[in-house]
Amino acid sequence: MGRFIAVGGFAPDVVLTSPAVRARATAELAAEAGGWEAPIEVRDGLYSGGGEAVLGELRQLPRETKSVVAVGHEPVWSGLVEALAGGGRVRFPTAAVACLTCGRSWSELAWGRMELRWLVTPKLLRRSGFGA
């Protein structure tokens, strides 16, 4: 996934991760695979809180931050993507990555104000031959 994100031109300015060992390892592996130069920041809200806590972490990002990769846990992420995009049903399997866009500053981020551009799963990448 890290390489997919980089090849697609979506390398992040910052990586936010839950303090959980597995989430941190995932963030580190993705950054290494993608050759990202972005700092990895551990954020407690990505582990101990629900969608509102994650939203709070995102709202604290500096205005100049253009692209973020956030690494966390289910079932929070499926519900978070659904709520940020304003509805729908999203299934977020392990190691999936979603791209959401928003024309606002991070501090103005709110439910239903983002657009889900794409969601890619490891299974889809394998079927496409990416990385083979």
Description:
The chain is an alpha/beta fold. It has a single domain (2-128), classed as Rossmann fold. Helix content is 38%, strand content 17%. α4 crosses α5 (76-85). The radius of gyration is 14 Å and the shape is globular.
Summary?
The chain is an alpha/beta fold and 132 residues long.
> What string gives the helices and strands in order?
HEHEHHEHEEH
Strand order of the largest sheet: 2-1-3
Query: From the coordinates shown, what is the CATH architecture?
Result: 3-Layer(aba) Sandwich
Q: What is the helix fraction of residues, given as a range?
A: 25-40%
Structural class: alpha/beta
Q: Roughly what fraction of the amino acids lie in strands?
A: 15-25%
Number of strands: 5
Number of helices: 6
Separation, N- and C-terminal Cα atoms: 13 Å
Main sheet summary: 3 strands, parallel
As for the CATH topology, it is Rossmann fold
The radius of gyration computed from the alpha-carbon positions, rounded to a whole number of angstroms, is 14 Å
Overall tally of structural domains: 1
Shape: globular
Output the CATH homologous superfamily. Answer: Phosphoglycerate mutase-like
Mean pLDDT: 91
